[in-house]
Q: What sequence folds into this?
């Protein structure tokens, strides 16, 4: 389905996750963050960058992985993206919701 | 003479030894299997031991009974794998050269990963049931427990047999009902997942059962520590769940051997090609069962399907033929739901559990994704099948390694 985010029409799934990463940019990112009541800071961007790296290398994201990320610890991750940080951070980063499990 | 070495004589290793012994020419190949324990445990039985449904004798047997005579069976801890030298080192110093190596060292609990979990209250009011010791200690505790808050908890995914914690909650409900003390017990199921199971379709069916049995659910709970002094578990979002009796499934990890040998991922699982079961480490190293990093359930039934395909691929590898990309992640699990009933799910990498009948399309007798007594009989019969057929590598009639879609209400696959 289509959703207007910022000035653009973006393709998203029923949970609001971007379907096509090519449509993602910093402005889209800030708008989605705003919808989650998150104001992007330097630290947020570092996390988004880390998530993009992982996604590009097809490495699964996990809470455990955050511990070893060298970017932030889990506590900070929860503070930056309150209430389900993995789900929120991936939503804002424009990549699919992590399939944590099998 | 060439050497094929199997690491671990659990479900997967034992099956591989039995498959290969009849397939590899004895004059050319020597098969060796190594395990640290003399005992072969029937791990699915650990679910029933705490409730006095199985006795401790029913869940363990001597490993040697299941290893073919012509296979060399070593009972010792494995120290190191050296892929560059094609050698395995044992604890007491023996070196085993190999031409082909199969890693089947499984996964085990790591309660030390969470602060306060295996502290002073471990096996006092904090228990696991994923080990023989834990299940037995919990049985003794339940026999005398007078009630209170029972919390059934999953620490983090992936875990082996991902439905077992839920089954534990269901069985606890019937256990306390039968003891006439259900009203004295408050049962809460706590999970890091967004719902009762890892697959959305089955989650719906299971959520309904939790409600019906009066079991509370706390989802998206990522545990940070156990506050054993105040009897509560606390997650990273500062949510607290109090308990009187905590039954947890700690983090599951591959054996430290994999880490020592530098072969694993973050959780010590061996990176493995998901359709062929060849490891990504080295072309003459293969991996099977819980030890792999495959995105499939870690279950005995999965290992059983994998064993058939891995056997074929090892024969192909020896002949220098291309490997068969046949493994589809097929899993087939009974879910015990208490009160003498069970449900059955059948799924693979891409296909979610669906409704229908199994193994005969339209006939059954087993019902997929629906509670029934026949399913429960199936789960109980699985113990016999395990000891007498499964680990001996005898093909189970009518159930194929690849998932069949016949007789099932298949829906569009979600990617
Ligand atoms: C409570 C519970 C319920 C379950 N219920 C079901 C069910 O209903 N259906 C189902 O299909 N599956 C079920 N399972 C899962 C099933 O038991 C496992 O998936 C299966 O046993 C995996 O087999 P494996 O050979 O890969 O690992 P394992 O059977 O665990 O074998 C690994 C072996 O390697 C040995 N080993 C490891 N490291 C070393 C070392 N360094 N040196 C020497 N030896 C070593 C270990 O001693 C062990 O014997 C359940 C599991 C549990 C815990």
A:
């Amino acid at each position: 389905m289509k959703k207007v985010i910022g000035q653009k029409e973006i393709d998203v799934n029923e949970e609001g996750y971007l379907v096509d990463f090519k449509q993602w940019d910093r402005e889209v990112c800030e708008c989605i963050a705003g919808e989650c009541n998150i104001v992007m800071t330097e630290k947020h961007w570092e996390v988004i960058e880390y998530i993009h790296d992982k996604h590009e290398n097809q490495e699964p994201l996990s809470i455990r992985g955050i511990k070893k990320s060298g970017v932030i610890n889990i506590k900070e991750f929860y503070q930056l993206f309150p209430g389900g940080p993995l789900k929120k951070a991936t939503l804002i980063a424009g990549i699919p919701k992590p399939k944590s499990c099998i | 003479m060439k050497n094929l070495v199997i690491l671990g004589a659990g479900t997967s290793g034992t099956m591989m030894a039995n498959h290969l012994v009849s397939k590899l020419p004895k004059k050319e190949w020597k098969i060796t299997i190594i395990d640290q324990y003399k005992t072969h445990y029937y791990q699915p039985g650990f679910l029933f031991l705490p409730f006095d449904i199985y006795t401790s004798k029913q869940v363990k047997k001597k490993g040697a009974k299941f290893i073919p005579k012509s296979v060399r069976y070593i009972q010792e801890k494995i120290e190191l794998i050296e892929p560059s030298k094609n050698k395995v080192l044992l604890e007491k110093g023996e070196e085993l050269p190999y031409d082909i190596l199969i890693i089947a060292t499984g996964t085990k609990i790591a309660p030390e990963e969470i602060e306060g979990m295996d502290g002073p209250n471990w096996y006092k009011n904090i228990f696991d049931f994923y080990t023989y010791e834990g299940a037995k200690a919990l049985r003794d505790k339940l026999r005398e427990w007078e009630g209170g808050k029972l919390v059934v908890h999953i620490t983090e995914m992936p875990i082996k047999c991902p439905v077992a914690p839920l089954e534990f909650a269901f069985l606890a409900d019937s256990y306390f009902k039968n003891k006439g003390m259900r009203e004295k017990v408050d049962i809460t199921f706590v999970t890091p997942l967004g719902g009762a199971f890892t697959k959305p379709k089955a989650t719906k069916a299971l959520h309904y059962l939790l409600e019906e049995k009066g079991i509370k659910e706390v989802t998206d709970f990522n545990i940070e520590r156990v506050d054993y002094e105040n009897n509560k578990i606390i997650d990273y979002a500062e949510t607290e769940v109090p308990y009187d009796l905590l039954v947890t499934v700690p983090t599951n990890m591959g054996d430290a051997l994999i880490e020592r040998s530098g072969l694993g991922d973050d959780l010590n699982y061996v990176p493995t090609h998901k359709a062929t079961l060849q490891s990504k480490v080295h072309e003459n190293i293969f991996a099977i069962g819980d030890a792999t990093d495959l995105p499939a359930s870690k279950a005995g039934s999965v290992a059983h399907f994998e064993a058939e395909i891995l056997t074929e691929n090892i024969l192909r590898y020896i002949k220098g033929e291309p490997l068969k990309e046949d493994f589809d992640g097929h899993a087939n699990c009974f879910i015990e739901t208490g009160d003498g009933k069970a449900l059955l799910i059948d799924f693979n990498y891409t296909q979610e559990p669906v409704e229908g009948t199994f193994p005969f399309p339209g006939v059954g007798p087993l019902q997929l994704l629906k509670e029934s007594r026949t399913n429960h009989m199936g789960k109980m019969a699985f113990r016999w099948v395990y000891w007498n057929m499964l680990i001996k590598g005898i093909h189970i009639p009518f159930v194929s390694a690849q998932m069949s879609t016949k007789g099932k209400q298949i829906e569009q696959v979600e990617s």
